[in-house]
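Entry:
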Amino acid sequence: MKPLRRRLPAGVEIAAVSITAACNLAVNRLFMDLGRIPANLGTAGLLTWFAHKEGATWADMGMDPAKLKQGVRWGLRAAVPIVLVIGAGVALPWTRKFFADEQVTSASGGEVLWHLFVEIPIGTALAEELLFRGALLGIFERRHSRRTADAMSAVLFGLWHVLPTIDQLQTNPAGDGISGTWGKVGAVGGVVVLTTIAGYGFALLRDKSDSVAAPVIAHTALNAAAYVGGRVAAGLLGVRI
C-alpha cells in the first residue's frame, strides 16, 4: 500500500497560480526576444522550487529520473501523429495560410536554427512543460482528482497564451481579416481554447508516462513542425523567404 501523502493547503495552490500569472505578465511585457528564454526557464525553476518546498515530490511533478526512459518512449510515440497532422495542415490549401507567420517567413538561416534547436525545445517546450505539467500539476494533484488537476493545468496553459496571441495577431496573415474588438477577442479566445485542449492532451501524456519528458518531446514536435510548416507554407503561397 502506498503511504498517504499530505494534502497541500489551498494557499499553496493560490500562491502558485498567482506567481504563474505574474511571471506571464513579466515574460510578455518586460522580457523580449532573447530575454524570454531565461525568463521562461526562470519561471519554471521558480515554480518547481516552490512546489517542492511546499511538499510536492519529484515523482508528483513527473521528474523522477527512474521514469525518464519511459517518458522519452511515450513522447516519441506521440510526436509522430502530431507531425503528420501539421503536415496535413500545410498541405491543404484552405489551412495553409494560417502557418505563414511573418516572424517565421522573415527569419534568416541562423534564426531558423536558433528557433528549432534552442528557443522551441528549451525556451518554450521544456520551460512550459516543467511549469504546467511539472510543478503546477504536481501541486494540483495533491489537492484534486487527477482529471480535475489535468483540466486546471490545461486552462492555465491556455490563458498563458493570451498575451503572445495578441502580439502575434500583428504578424500572422490570418490576422489581416480580423477587425474590431470582438474580432480580436474571438481570435484570442480561439487560441486559448486550442491551447487548452493541447495542454490537456499533454497532461494526459504525462499521466500515462509518469514523466514530464513525454510532453516535453510532444510539445517540441508540435512547435517545431509548425515552424517548419510555416516555412514550407510560405514557399507554397509564393512568399519570398
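The two ends are 60 Å apart (CA to CA).
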